[in-house]
Automatic annotation (TrEMBL):
Belongs to the TRAFAC class translation factor GTPase superfamily. Classic translation factor GTPase family. EF-Tu/EF-1A subfamily. This is Translation elongation factor EFTu/EF1A C-terminal domain-containing protein. Gene3D superfamilies: Translation factors. It holds the Pfam family GTP_EFTU_D2. One of its GO terms (cellular component) is cytoplasm. Keywords: Cytoplasm, Elongation factor, GTP-binding, Nucleotide-binding, Protein biosynthesis.
Length: 208
């Protein structure tokens, strides 16, 4: 997120799904702040709209740089806006971990641009990586080479989605001891209702 003198706050990011265009009212997750997009730029040129894969800067009104952080997700307020989550269920494959992983393990997850510690709250089932069949219910622990369904809780507000709904927001890497110890795919998300505030420009644009 950059602050550009004379223009205002310009968050920068990559469009993952859908489009972003001027005049749209967007919501930032996980805080729920909504505002109007004033302009969209790529390589210093104004765009009528940006599509997936575009790295864009977009100008938002009445939003301070302090309101936004890396890892926040911006989405269309009118069409299934992204929200924070209280927990999520994921299929995790342990690639490289020297010991045993038990419930309570809290490594850092890298998901889209978010970098947040998440706790393995429950190990639900251990599954066969090839067939996807359940091998063991509520396993005591998992280790390198295992795949499991895990219930996870983020330590800070975090915005993720199920892989089937929004693939780029539904994949993650598990980092610990300076390496990737596991990878995961999110199956379902327990959404959190956040009453976010709408800026004046969002309220005006909504009336149009």
């Amino acid at each position: 997120v950059y602050k550009i003198g004379g223009i205002g706050t310009v968050p920068v990011g990559r469009v993952e799904t859908g489009v972003i265009k001027p005049g749209m009212v967007v919501t930032f997750a996980p805080t729920g702040l909504s505002t109007e997009v004033k302009s969209v730029e790529m390589h210093h040129e104004s765009l009528p709209q940006a599509v997936p894969g575009d790295n864009v800067g977009f100008n938002v009104k009445n939003v301070s740089v302090k309101d936004l952080k890396r890892g926040y997700v911006c989405s269309d307020s009118k069409s299934d806006p992204a929200t924070g989550c209280s927990s999520f269920k994921a299929q995790v494959i342990i690639l490289n971990h020297p010991g045993e992983i038990h419930a309570g393990y809290a490594p850092v997850l890298d998901c889209h641009t978010a970098h947040i510690a998440c706790k393995f709250k429950e190990l639900l089932v251990k599954i066969d990586r090839r067939t996807g069949k359940t091998v063991e219910e509520t396993p005591k622990m998992i280790k390198s080479g295992d795949a499991a369904m895990v219930n996870m809780i983020p330590s800070k507000p975090m915005c993720v989605e199920s892989f089937t709904a929004y693939p780029p927001l539904g994949r993650f890497a598990v980092r610990d001891m300076r390496q990737t110890v596991a990878v995961g795919v999110i199956k379902s998300v327990e959404k959190k209702d956040t009453e976010g505030k709408a800026t004046k420009s969002a309220q005006k644009a909504a009336k149009k």
